[in-house]
Design goal:
Strand order of the largest sheet of chain A: 6-7-8-3-9-10
CATH architecture of chain B: Orthogonal Bundle
Distance between the termini of chain A: 40 Å
Shape of chain A: elongated
Order of helices and strands of chain B: HHHHHHHHHHHHH
Helix content of chain A: 25-40%
Strand content of chain A: 35-45%
Helix content of chain B: over 70%
Oligomer: heterodimer
Number of domains of chain A: 2
CATH superfamily of chain B: MetI-like
CATH superfamily of the largest domain in chain A: P-loop containing nucleotide triphosphate hydrolases
Radius of gyration of chain A: 25 Å
Structural class of chain B: mainly alpha
Order of helices and strands of chain A: EEEHEEHEHHHEHEHEEHHEEEEEEEEEE
Largest interface: A-B, 30 and 23 residues
Chain lengths: 345, 264
């Protein structure tokens, strides 16, 4: 089911949570809404579910205007961060709940509900735990039950709000891979909210980066990582270094020195962004950024050095080979392989 | 240490007086006890006491849950005052409550004057007793259910809604079953309190033997007649019935606690 969010604005008590957000989700896609807390990602998810109604704008499921429908009528599967399981019901009753509350003319027979619930429990690898109560399960198991329960109603869209947020790191990684497998098998259109960029990049077909109630960038993990389109995305996804620069005749300058980098911007002040590990070291001092090492530390397989950039009086970080001979106070010159210049804020 | 203290304390406060009660009533012998128990006046008093207490506790469960829900989920001016008013029956001398209720529900009282032409008599009937017992029992239900309700996340209701449950289904299938142990505790407390209530009831009851005479009052009457054995016999019978009922309620509690894994 295609989902289209069109010009949605949402205010809570006059406090704007989303400004004019539009988004198209293709049928069968796995989409991540990624952003820091307060970016409006959960609000957007809840608007799609119908748990909130937009102050302005519309939500479409296919060609149908879902904004006119209640949560109950939208038929969405929603998975909450803290599972929200019904604790007085067994695992299998939790999964079957959505079918049991259907009006009698569309409700499957009791045996059929049972059969489908146990099939789903099988699918989420929880067979054998049908008779347990939620309190008797681990966090990871509970979240699987929550997912099975959401899938039982054959939802048009599957929405997950920080589904792995309450789990420890190891379980989180396992469930992440497992969710991807489930999605590849069922092809449900799926939207999940996360503040964890690794989770978003690893799992999603496309990532929607959000900040302060607006969408900053929508793209594949490669696009948002390799071609961030705003300073925010540069800073939020992956690591970035930045340096105040000046543009003259389409090239980048620091002080009186050209960096030998071309920039597609009008003349004036700008801010150069690049990935610390995506640089090449060069000899000499022309057409490059040169600086003095002021600190150096080992990070995993590489070495991170902090440079005092000549002419800019700014410190930046770059990554170099672990066996590079640079020590404190030695000079290093480099050129970023990929970079972008944005307006200075 | 703490266990020893607890046992000694319970023995001193609860067990020894109750043993004294059993001892005293035993002086009647089985035949005498049976005679007191089957005396129509005793039977009627017990029936009225337990019957009105049961009805009052049931009504308290219904309205107490509603009051608790409003206090937990709604934000309105004066909420704190309403919250404080709920505790009033705890604090107020029950005789004051009885006198106030009697003056309101008597034939010429504020409310009684409108009910009387309809042929509804409240004061000096079991209905009046029930109203007094509702009054004293309300806080027990509200205060046991309220904290449990506060723990229910709105997420659970939202989950039910996304699964297609309407409001009624959410309440009856999701919220109330989750509250059931707390509601049962509240019922037990309100019921136990109502069975033992004396002060507020004797003013509104009218105390007609066989009609509106409660068992605790009958005990006092026997005492005033210096019939100590008779008084303690009625007391022992009340104790037995109360104990049996609370025991059953506790069994249900333990069963549901095991089932839902509360406290984990």
């Amino acid at each position: 089911m295609d989902v289209r969010v069109s010009g949605v604005r949402k205010e809570f008590d006059r406090f704007p949570a989303l400004h004019d957000v539009s988004l198209e989700i293709k049928s069968g896609e796995l989409i991540a809404l990624l952003g820091p807390s307060g970016s409006g990602k959960t609000t957007l998810l809840r608007l799609i579910a119908g748990l909130e109604s937009p102050t302005e704008g519309k939500v479409f499921f296919g060609d149908e205007d879902a904004s006119l429908k209640s949560v109950q009528e939208r038929n969405v599967g929603f998975v909450f961060q803290h599972y929200a399981l019904f604790r007085h019901m067994t695992v299998i009753d939790n999964v079957g709940f959505g079918l049991k509350v259907r009006p009698s003319n569309t409700r499957p027979a009791k045996d059929e509900i049972r059969r489908r619930s146990s099939e789903l429990l099988d699918f989420v690898q929880l067979s054998g735990l049908e008779k347990r109560y939620p309190a008797q399960l681990s966090g990871g198991q509970r979240q699987r039950v929550a997912l099975a329960r959401a899938m039982a109603i054959e939802p048009r869209v599957l929405l997950l709000d920080e589904p792995f947020g309450a789990l420890d790191a190891k379980v989180r990684k396992e469930l992440r891979r497992w969710l991807r497998e489930i999605h590849d098998k069922t092809k449900h259109t799926t939207v999940f909210v996360t503040h964890d960029q690794d989770e978003a990049l690893e799992l999603a077909d496309r990532v929607v980066v959000m900040s302060q109630g607006s969408i900053e960038q929508v793209g594949t993990p490669d696009e948002v990582y390799d071609k961030p389109n705003s300073p925010f995305v540069y800073g939020f996804i992956g690591e970035s270094s930045r340096l105040p620069v000046r543009i003259e005749n389409g090239t980048v300058w620091i002080g009186e020195k050209s960096l030998g980098l071309k920039a597609d911007r009008p003349d004036g002040d700008g801010m150069l962004y690049f990935r610390p590990h995506d640089v090449e070291l060069v000899d000499g001092s022309n057409g490059c950024i040169a600086g003095t090492v002021v600190a150096s530390r080992r990070v995993g397989a590489t070495r991170r050095v902090e440079l005092m950039v000549a002419g800019a009086e700014e410190r930046i970080e770059i990554g170099i080979d672990a066996d590079h001979p640079a020590t404190e106070l030695s000079g290093i010159a480099f050129r970023p392989r990929h970079f972008r210049v944005f307006a200075r804020d | 240490m703490a266990l020893g203290f607890t046992l000694a304390y319970l023995a001193l406060i609860v067990l020894i007086p109750l043993t004294g009660l059993a001892w005293r009533s035993a002086s009647l012998g089985w035949a005498g006890l049976w005679h007191v128990a089957t005396d129509p006046r005793t039977l009627n008093a017990l029936k009225i006491s337990f019957g009105t207490a049961f009805v009052a506790a049931l009504i308290n469960v219904f309205f107490g849950v509603v009051v608790a829900w409003v206090l937990v989920r709604y934000r309105f001016p004066g909420r704190r005052i309403i919250d404080a008013i709920v505790d009033l029956p705890f604090a107020l001398p029950t005789a004051v409550a009885g006198i106030a209720l009697t003056s309101i529900y008597a034939k010429n009282g504020w409310i009684g004057r409108w009910l009387d032409p309809l042929g509804i008599k409240v004061a000096f009937t079991p209905i009046g007793i029930t109203i007094a017992l509702i009054f004293v029992g309300l806080p027990f239900v509200v205060r046991t259910v309220q904290p449990v309700m506060e723990e229910i996340r709105t997420e659970v209701e939202e989950a039910a809604a996304t699964l297609g449950a309407n409001r009624f289904q959410t309440i009856t299938r999701v919220l109330l079953p989750g509250l059931q142990p707390a509601i049962l505790t509240g019922f037990a407390l309100a019921f136990a309190r109502a069975v033992g209530e004396y002060g507020s009831v004797i003013f509104i009851a009218g105390n007609l033997p066989y009609v509106s005479e409660i068992a605790p009052l009958l005990i006092v009457i026997r005492l005033e007649e210096f019939d100590y054995a008779g008084a303690t016999a009625i007391a022992a019978i009340m104790l037995l019935i109360s104990f049996a009922m609370l025991f059953i309620i506790n069994l249900i509690q333990a069963w549901s606690r095991r089932r839902y894994g509360y406290g984990t």
